[in-house]
Amino acid sequence: MQSPEASTAVSPTRTTIQLALLAFADEVVGTLAHLIAYVGTLALFAILALAALGQLPDLRDDEPVEKPGWSVAGRSHPAFAVSRPDSSEKTVAYTILRHPEGGRRDVLRWTDDAGKPLAELEIYRQGAEFDVTRPATADLAAQMGLGAATALEQAGLIGTKFGPVALFRPTGTTEGAQGCLGYLKRSEEPALQISGFSCRGGSLPARRAAIACTLNRLTLLASGNEPRLAELFAHAELKRGGCDPAGSADWLLGAANAQLRGAL
Question: Which end of the chain has fewer CB atoms at under 10 Å, N or C?
Answer without folding.
Answer: N
